[in-house]
Write a structure and sequence with these properties.
This protein is 22% helix and 33% strand. Helix 2 packs across helix 3. The strands form three sheets. Strands 1, 2, 3, 11, 12 and 13 form a six-stranded mixed beta sheet that branches. The protein has a five-stranded parallel beta sheet with strand order 5-4-8-9-10, sandwiched between helices. With 208 residues, it is an alpha/beta fold.
Length: 208
């Protein structure tokens, strides 16, 4: 499967790239035609820092007290907090970066995290947002805990309705023939094509 993989570079900064693997993959919410491996941008200093700069630039005019990071994006979120606190309207703001627990699609904040969300301006950061379910659930969670969602940022995203601005580094338009389907409507399944791997925020696990 990895032999099919290729690297997709950001048009804005060549330090930022993801690895794209064509095939048939199952995620928590959908079946997709391409696996987007974001290990480099999530894990390597230079790549994460470059990604954070581009994402942070879109929110320089937005008040941010806290960044909630999902799907192992805390390194990117920390660099975003640093950039935001040195320019724009958040200069010298001591921005918090937190990662909540998830129960299914719902965010769970323990009492010690509540002060960082309640009555705060909160930015949501996630790795992937193709169907919008993760982002919209996160926005609902921020509101539930008394925060004000000011925007969402993602490494790879699709088109979906959202009550706040969404900024993405890569989009489905960057990948030829990228498709996402509900498991019940997946044409690859209907053709009898087996799922190559199960994909989540930690990566992918090939199915034998």
């Amino acid at each position: 499967m990895e032999k099919r993989a290729y690297e997709l570079l950001s048009r804005l900064n060549s330090e930022i790239s993801v690895r794209v693997i064509p095939g048939h993959f199952a995620t928590q919410h959908s079946h997709i035609s391409h696996c987007i491996d974001m290990t480099k941008v999530k894990s390597q200093l230079n790549s994460a820092k470059a990604a954070a700069k581009i994402l942070a630039d879109s929110f320089m005019g937005v008040p941010v007290d806290t960044i909630i990071t999902l799907e192992r994006t805390k390194m990117i979120g920390s660099f975003m907090a640093n950039y935001l606190s040195h320019a724009g309207m958040n200069v010298n703001q001591n921005i918090a970066v937190i990662t909540p627990e998830l129960v299914g699609d719902k965010m769970l904040l323990r009492d010690n995290f509540l002060p960082y969300v309640m009555n705060c301006h909160v930015l949501l950061l996630t790795a992937s947002a193709t169907t919008g379910q993760t982002v919209n659930s996160g926005i609902e969670g921020i509101k539930y805990y008394g925060g004000t969602p000011v925007g969402a940022a993602t490494v790879f995203g699709g088109k979906f309705e959202c009550p706040v601005p969404v900024v993405k580094l890569f989009g489905i338009g960057d990948i030829n023939d990228y498709s996402s389907y509900s498991p019940q409507e997946c044409p690859l399944c209907k053709k009898g094509l087996k799922v190559d791997a199960v994909v989540n925020s930690y990566g992918y696990s090939k199915l034998i």
